[in-house]
Amino acid sequence: MYQALYRKWRPNTFDDVVGQAHITETLKRQVSTGRLSHAYLFTGTRGTGKTTCAKLLARAVNCEHPVNGNPCNHCPACLGIENGSILDVLELDAASNNGVDQVRALRDEAVYTPAAVRKRVYIVDEVHMLSTAAFNALLKILEEPPAHLMFILATTELHKVPATIKSRCQQFSFKRILPGDIAARLAYVAREEGLELRGEGAALLARLADGGLRAALSLLDQCAVTDRPIGEQEVLDALGLAGNIETAALMERIGEGDTAGTLETLGRLYGAGKEIGSLLGELAALTRDLLVRKTAPQGGAALLTGGYDENTMRRLSNVFQTARLVQVLGLLQSTLADLPRSSNRRTDAELCLIRLCQPALDESLTGLNVRLSRVEELLAGGVPTTCTVPAGPLKRSTPEQRAEEQSSVVEGPADLPPWEEERPPLPEEPPADREDPIPPPEVGEEERPSQPVDSRRETGGADLWPGLVVLLRGKFPAVYPFLSNPAAVQGVLEGGVLTLWVDNEFTKSMVGGAHILEELARLAGEQTGGSVRCTVKVGKAPERLGGTPAAEHDNLDDLLALGQQFDNIIIEE
Q1: Tell me: the pLDDT tens digits for 135-149?
Q2: How many CB atoms lie within 10 A of CB 528?
Q3: DSSP 120
Q4: Strand, coil or helix: what is 502?
Q5: In whole numbers, what is the pLDDT of the chain averaged over residues?
Q6: Is position 387 within any domain?
Q7: Alpha helices of 296-441 — where are they, by DSSP H?
């Protein structure tokens, strides 16, 4: 009968164990010197050699002719333990024998001396599955065991083992086997089995095994059904994987936001027999490699799976931001976790890819963070193409320099700000000592208010106030959003008094500072050519004073005004 490769090629000596030299060398020295412990605890991920080393240790301590700490595999003890005829070495599965009654029965049997070998050995696999009562029943015999008794406990979840158990055992941690070591072992097994395994096929199987040699041998067994040489493409076809080229192309379409192309690729791969979970898993592995590459470009090279060439990784790294990769990986991981419970795996995968191509559809906080990161990137690099900044120190410009710049640039009415209207030149003002009384209306003519000579001086502030607000830009950044908001502040000039009508007391406290009012009064005096006093009142500006209805305030204006504070920076040659 055919025997699976991982069973057929299980190591027979400690020297055959791959990738765990730090453990096998210690165990060999303990067997050679006789300094053996009564309890061992083997921890590590699946397929790294825990149960194999436990069986080798059970044979080595009972071997009649050990060779440098290794079992000879020829004496009656080794052969009897190997074929299961010696009942003094017993392997238990704690997942199915996790009750307190089974542990009590084991404890009662353990006190008897072995019948055929020197030591009675109990190998308890997946020991973390024992119940609390079973662990308590095991404590006493672990603390004071007979001289002929040895326990070897194995677990993949060390955190579930009580500290009272761990403190009574010698603990050995099995690490993941390196892909190079797995590939070398696969090549050796393939030669012995008469299989033609190519280098790229062995490397792909080693990556897919994720540090477990048993998984790698099982995958090789699955791919060995063809008469052709086992290369990368044969492995992909046998396991239903998409392959690095297809995965990289799919990832590039996601980065470009090509939803139609992404769904077309998914449909083609699905029709070719690719498994949905495997495809999303490959995308998640590639995203993880890209994330490691961007966050740790120097020391993270050793953490990559190595399944993609440098040019592909560099090209994809330039397409994605770090925040975008975090969002992609999180969405892929959550979809993979939900696939086993899904009624339509293909639809779930399509929805996932659509959300990946269009981040606006991802309503999670991570998706929002991606969109904000994109906006920040655009703002950081959003310098207009017509703006050239020569090298040299920056310094603040004075009002005179700004006025000279504006006079040299603004040459016509078309360049006036939007709040200024084209008006005829102002008439020359009369001398200060001259008084021109207003002539009385003629007989029969209705009496009407006099027309001002200078609209900026005598109007109720409809034309004056917006100009004053513009002049304050950059001087009071914290207060400018209030002053520029017509719904919050309206300025009205009447009789040499500039009154700021504000909507509430808080606004009054913000704009009513003495330095602000003094600056407003000074600027208003410069505009009108006279002495102006400034005051603040809570309420609505009287309609008769010419206050224009308050326009709806746009918060974007505040942001633009804050950014335009830097308009005062000029370049010093």
Answers
A1: 888 888 888 888 889
A2: 18
A3: E
A4: strand
A5: 77
A6: no
A7: 310-319, 322-338, 345-357, 365-380, 399-409
Whether pLDDT at 262 is above 70: yes
State the pairing for strand pair 394-396/569-571. Answer: antiparallel
* This prediction's pTM: 0.56
- Could you give the CA distance from residue 423 to residue 401 in angstroms, rounded to a whole number? 25
| Domain final residue pick, 380, 400, 429 | 380
Q: Is residue 446 part of a domain?
A: no
| pLDDT level of residue 418 (50, 70, 90 thresholds) | very low
3-class state of residue 153 by DSSP: strand
Q: Which pair of structure tokens corresponds to residue 128?
A: 């973390």
The answer as to whether 444 is a domain residue is: no
Do 301 and 354 lie in one domain? The reply is yes
204 and 256 fall within a common domain = no
- What's the pLDDT at 419? 37
Give residue 174's pLDDT band: very low, low, confident or very high (50, 70, 90): very high
Q: Is residue 449 part of a domain?
A: no
Decide if 36 contacts 28 (C-beta within 8 A): no
Same domain, 258 and 314: yes
Token readout for 95 is 């997942």
Does pLDDT of 447 surpass 60?
A: no
How far apart (Å, rounded) are the C-alpha atoms in residues 111 and 141? Answer: 9
- In this structure, are residues 40 and 173 in contact, taking their beta carbons and an 8 Å threshold? no
Residue 355, token pair as written in the block: 């959300």
**What is the arrangement of strands in the sheet containing 533-538, beginning at the earlier edge strand?**
489-494, 497-502, 533-538
> What pLDDT score does 31 carry?
92
**Inter-axis angle of helices 514-528 and 464-471, nearest 10:** 120
Lowest-confidence pick of 174-178, 359-363, 431-435, 504-508? 431-435
